[in-house]
Each structure stands twice: as structure tokens, then as C-alpha cells.
Write a structure and sequence with these properties.
two-stranded antiparallel sheet, 4 strands, mainly alpha, single chain, about 280 residues
Length: about 280
């Protein structure tokens, strides 16, 4: 066991995680002075401490001992999710979530599948490593297909993995500092962001005072008053038919009453939306 290697790895891990000694030592249940002695190579951490570090921060024990260059340890789904969460907090990478979990009748068919995916936009100017991620995924698709279709063997695939990891080692990743905001500040920032987004959108939005959310009002919204006028006229016609006691109206009386009530509610709702429109 190389004590200097372990001390360097612990300090490297803490630095990469943007944690100070106080927070890191608290996370693994030791005193700050003890962590300092580990990082300075004065004291060798016990196997229990090393195991705690590996499990807490999802790193490989072989990496901590200097026996492997692979830092991340993938042994459970939690390890994979941890990588995704770390990537979500990266300054240089940004992925969009592509979720399809609303199927007609909640039934999966050949054309309608339940799926979820990550999407990287390679030309995103605000995230410099998105293009590299797109190139890597394209290479992965090609090499994986070659391996699974027996065009290449495991030795070639392992060689490609090693070369790829070595190449991308030179591209550092930094992490965001997520702000801790009080309730009022968070709501103010949310409203500012929504106002900015909606002002740049061709569609308009109205604010629901009950739920506190913004909802879309589609492009035909300016014509809602005309729609409401026709709806009122239609309601009057329905009421006129309801007052006639012909066999036809008696037969459809229930449906006509429902139509009338629906239109009345719709008119009130549309007028409330119109009053709340953000201009």
C-alpha cells in the first residue's frame, strides 16, 4: 500500500468534489484534523475509512490504492445515477430529458413505446463539451454494433475504450455551485425567468392565481371574445330548444342541458384567462 498515493487520491477526490476539509470529514464521519493527517501522509486511513470513502463518493477502491486509473466504481444502479447527477451539475455539459411515459390507454404498442433518453445538442455554445459527448456517443454506437455483430473482438473493443478514455482525460469538467435561496428570493427569480421566457415566445401565457403556475394560451387567444360571443348565441339557441316540448327536444333534453352548462363554464373560464393575460 503506498501511503503517499492514498493521501494524494483523497485530496484529489475532495478537490474534485469542491468540498473543504470540514465538509468532507463530516461526510465520512471523522474529525477535520484526522482528514488533514490523511492528506499530509502523516497517518494512513484504516480500511473501514477507505471503504466509507469509496461507498460515499462512488469511487473505486483500486483507484484509491493507486492500482487503477478508473476512478468511478459501478456496482449498483445508485452508482450510475450518481454519475448522471454529477453530470447534471456540470458547467460544460447539458443534457435534455426525452421522456415518453404517456401512452394511449396506457398500452405499449410497436409504434408507441415507453422510453426515456438523454439528448445532447452538439452545437450548444454555452456547454463546450456537448460536441465531444455527441462524438463519443457516435463512436460508441459504431464500436458497440461492431462488437455485438462479431465484426470486431473484445480485444479491439477494449483497445478502443482505453484510447478513448485517455483522449478525454485532457478535457476537465467543473461543477456548478447551486445557490441556497430563501423562499421570497426563489419566487422572485422564478417570476423573472418566466417573464423573460414568455416575452420571447410567440405564444402568450396567463397566470393561474390558484396554482401559481403559468399556462399556455395558443395563438388564437385574441379571437376568444368572438368565440365567446358565438358560444353565448349557441347557448341561447340551446335554451330555446329546451323550452320547446317537442319529441325531439325531450329525447335529447339531458344532452342539451350538459352542453349549456359546459358552455357557460367555458365562457367564464376563458374570460378569467383573458383578464390574467400577460401582455
Amino acid at each position: 500500500m503506498q501511503e503517499s498515493s492514498i493521501s494524494e487520491k483523497i485530496k484529489e477526490l475532495r478537490t474534485d468534489l469542491k468540498m473543504n476539509q470540514k465538509n468532507f470529514s463530516a461526510a465520512i464521519g471523522i474529525r477535520q484534523s484526522t482528514l488533514s493527517s490523511y492528506e499530509n501522509g502523516v497517518v494512513t486511513p484504516s480500511n473501514d475509512v477507505l471503504l466509507t470513502i469509496a461507498q460515499k463518493f462512488h469511487v473505486s477502491l483500486d483507484w484509491l490504492f493507486g492500482l487503477s486509473e478508473n476512478k468511478v466504481q459501478i456496482s449498483t444502479l445508485s452508482d450510475i445515477l450518481w454519475v448522471l447527477l454529477q453530470m447534471n451539475e456540470s458547467n460544460e455539459l447539458r443534457y435534455e430529458l426525452d421522456i415518453n411515459n404517456k401512452l394511449p390507454g396506457d398500452i405499449e404498442t410497436e409504434t408507441q413505446k415507453w422510453y426515456a433518453g438523454l439528448r445532447f445538442y452538439g452545437n450548444d455554445p454555452e456547454h463546450s463539451l456537448n460536441a465531444d459527448m455527441c462524438n463519443f456517443l457516435a463512436d460508441l454506437q459504431e464500436n458497440r454494433e461492431s462488437l455485438e455483430s462479431y465484426f470486431t473482438g473484445k480485444d479491439m473493443f477494449d483497445m478502443w475504450k482505453k484510447q478513448t478514455l485517455e483522449y478525454y482525460t485532457s478535457k476537465p469538467v467543473t461543477h456548478k455551485e447551486i445557490e441556497e435561496l430563501d423562499f421570497e428570493t426563489r419566487i422572485r427569480k422564478r417570476d423573472e425567468l418566466l417573464t423573460q421566457k414568455f416575452s420571447n415566445n410567440e405564444q402568450k401565457y396567463y397566470h393561474n392565481s390558484i396554482t401559481g403556475r403559468y399556462a399556455k394560451v395558443f395563438i388564437f387567444f385574441p379571437y376568444l371574445p368572438v368565440f365567446n360571443l358565438f358560444a353565448i348565441l349557441y347557448s341561447l339557441i340551446l335554451n330555446f330548444l329546451l323550452n320547446r316540448k317537442t319529441p325531439e327536444t325531450l329525447r335529447f333534453r339531458g344532452i342539451l342541458r350538459l352542453d349549456t352548462m359546459y358552455l357557460a363554464v367555458l365562457n367564464i373560464y376563458n374570460l378569467r384567462c383573458y383578464a390574467k393575460i400577460i401582455r
